[in-house]
Amino acid sequence: MFERLREDIQSVFHRDPAARNAFEVLTCYPGMHAIWIHRLSGLLWRADWKWLARLVSNFGRWLTGIEIHPGAKVGRRFFIDHGMGIVIGETAEIGDDVTLYQGVTLGGTTWNKGKRHPTLEDGVVVGAGAKVLGPFTVGAGAKVGSNAVVTKAVPAGATVVGIPGRIIIKHDDEVQAKRKAMAEKIGFDAYGVSEDMPDPVARAIGQLLDHLQAVDGKLEGMCGALKDLGSPYCAKDLPQLREEDFACVQGKDDVRPG
């Protein structure tokens, strides 16, 4: 039991930079309290003490604002961040190293008996306010964006966003590495072009970075050819882009008429 408790605490340190020490996690993390109470209610449920299991589960809901049905199956190192408003249904199954944020619902879409709730495989992350509804599987390592509504199976490693949930096709690692290198070269924040943040502006910046990468390659080739011909044209460095210039422009753009 103590080994499992230690494992739970370590999982918090791995996924929450705000955690400072074990005592703070033990006393001030309602997500952990909800999981520990669920383990007790789950034992009672499997021992066929159904009413008592529901009573313990209801106490956990009252104490933490997190509702986990005692029949739900939960894996190791499950982490609930913030947690208020989370609902996990009776036939939900959660793998190891899964993370849920506040307001998540793992719900059903039918009143029939049997499997009604989703299965989250190992390493799944579900963002704040997301709704995962139905008896399907969210594959290992998948991510569900904040406020998404997912009603269909999600492949392993995919990212789902929107209402209804749609899968974002990720670029391969080589393309992502090139974009990051170009972004760092010209002073953009690489986080702004991540496919995990499916903003239309971010996608447009990503395409611009791809274009700039190609232009940069051609310019280097041209400069190399001119140098071979003895021309000093490319001897000068390009002017640097200063962060303060972009901050000034951003500040002006943020001003709106009252």
Automatic annotation (TrEMBL):
Q: Give GO MF terms, alphabetically.
A: serine O-acetyltransferase activity
Pfam families in UniProt: Hexapep
Which SUPFAM superfamilies does the annotation name? Trimeric LpxA-like enzymes
Keyword Iron found: no
Q: InterPro entries annotated for this entry?
A: Hexapep (IPR001451), LbH_SAT (IPR045304), Ser_AcTrfase_N_sf (IPR042122), Ser_O-AcTrfase (IPR005881), Serine_acetyltransferase (IPR053376), Trimer_LpxA-like_sf (IPR011004)
Protein's UniProt keywords contain Cytoplasm? yes
- Any one of the GO CC terms: cytoplasm
Reaction equations catalysed: L-serine + acetyl-CoA = O-acetyl-L-serine + CoA
**Gene Ontology BP terms:** cysteine biosynthetic process from serine
Top-rank taxon of the source lineage equals Bacteria
UniProt KW keywords:
Acyltransferase, Amino-acid biosynthesis, Cytoplasm, Repeat, Transferase
Q: What enzyme category does the UniProt record give?
A: transferase
Q: Where in the cell is it found?
A: Cytoplasm
- What EC number(s) does this enzyme carry? 2.3.1.30
Report the sequence similarity comment from the record: Belongs to the transferase hexapeptide repeat family.
Protein name as it appears in the record:
serine O-acetyltransferase
Q: Which organism is it from?
A: Pseudomonas weihenstephanensis
Taxonomic lineage? Bacteria, Pseudomonadati, Pseudomonadota, Gammaproteobacteria, Pseudomonadales
